[in-house]
């Protein structure tokens, strides 16, 4: 076996030092090495968005990157969205709008939606749909997911954020 490579990642605010094999994929590292199983494996081929996490402020499909390529990165997973016992506003909005059924796509939808809201690029329902198009939902909860994101965008606009 080749040598393991030492990397450091900040995951949900905590610095983690890990020795990984060169081919360890970030998704597997999160789930299998760190026990953060909220991030889901759907297609494992960059096509469904179930594995979306926020890396240095950008949403990425964690099944598509080798962990060693992201040495030093800051990562937020679905487990890191709630703060001090309070749900992230988008998590609350998903509950308010019934934006999930089986829930398998939900961690990816939430991470993608949180990053999209921060990006500030989506202003209309069509734009939300377009920028969320990398996150598939086999249950077809799309309308409610857009409702939830729209609610948070609306309350941020009211709050002048
Ligand atoms: Fe990564 Fe589907 S599991 S995109
Ligand atoms: Fe089931 Fe989206 S809620 S896949």
From TrEMBL:
<keyword id="KW-0560">Oxidoreductase</keyword>
<keyword id="KW-0411">Iron-sulfur</keyword>
<protein>
    <submittedName>
        <fullName>Xanthine dehydrogenase YagT iron-sulfur-binding subunit</fullName>
    </submittedName>
</protein>
<dbReference type="GO" id="GO:0051537">
    <property type="term" value="F:2 iron, 2 sulfur cluster binding"/>
</dbReference>
<dbReference type="InterPro" id="IPR036884">
    <property type="entry name" value="2Fe-2S-bd_dom_sf"/>
</dbReference>
<keyword id="KW-0479">Metal-binding</keyword>
<keyword id="KW-0408">Iron</keyword>
<dbReference type="InterPro" id="IPR052914">
    <property type="entry name" value="Aldehyde_Oxdr_Iron-Sulfur"/>
</dbReference>
<feature type="domain" description="2Fe-2S ferredoxin-type">
    <location>
        <begin position="5"/>
        <end position="81"/>
    </location>
</feature>
<dbReference type="Pfam" id="PF00111">
    <property type="entry name" value="Fer2"/>
</dbReference>
<dbReference type="InterPro" id="IPR006058">
    <property type="entry name" value="2Fe2S_fd_BS"/>
</dbReference>
<dbReference type="Pfam" id="PF01799">
    <property type="entry name" value="Fer2_2"/>
</dbReference>
<dbReference type="InterPro" id="IPR036010">
    <property type="entry name" value="2Fe-2S_ferredoxin-like_sf"/>
</dbReference>
<dbReference type="InterPro" id="IPR002888">
    <property type="entry name" value="2Fe-2S-bd"/>
</dbReference>
<dbReference type="InterPro" id="IPR001041">
    <property type="entry name" value="2Fe-2S_ferredoxin-type"/>
</dbReference>
<dbReference type="GO" id="GO:0046872">
    <property type="term" value="F:metal ion binding"/>
</dbReference>
<keyword id="KW-0001">2Fe-2S</keyword>
<dbReference type="InterPro" id="IPR012675">
    <property type="entry name" value="Beta-grasp_dom_sf"/>
</dbReference>
<dbReference type="GO" id="GO:0016903">
    <property type="term" value="F:oxidoreductase activity, acting on the aldehyde or oxo group of donors"/>
</dbReference>
């Amino acid at each position: 076996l080749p040598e393991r490579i030492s990397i450091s990642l900040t995951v949900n605010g905590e610095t983690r030092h890990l020795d990984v094999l060169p081919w360890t994929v970030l998704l597997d590292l999160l789930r299998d090495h760190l026990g953060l199983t909220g991030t889901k494996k759907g297609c494992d081929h960059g096509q469904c968005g179930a594995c979306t996490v926020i890396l240095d402020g950008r949403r990425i499909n964690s099944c598509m990157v080798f962990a060693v390529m992201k040495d030093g990165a800051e990562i937020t997973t679905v487990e890191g969205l709630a703060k001090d016992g309070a749900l992230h506003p988008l998590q609350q909005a998903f509950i308010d709008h019934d934006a999930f059924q089986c829930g398998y796509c939900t961690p990816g939808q939430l991470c993608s939606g949180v990053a999209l809201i921060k990006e500030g690029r989506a202003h209309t329902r069509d734009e939300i749909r377009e920028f969320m198009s990398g996150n598939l939902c086999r249950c077809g909860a799309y309308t409610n997911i857009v409702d939830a994101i729209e609610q948070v965008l609306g309350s941020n606009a009211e709050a002048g954020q």
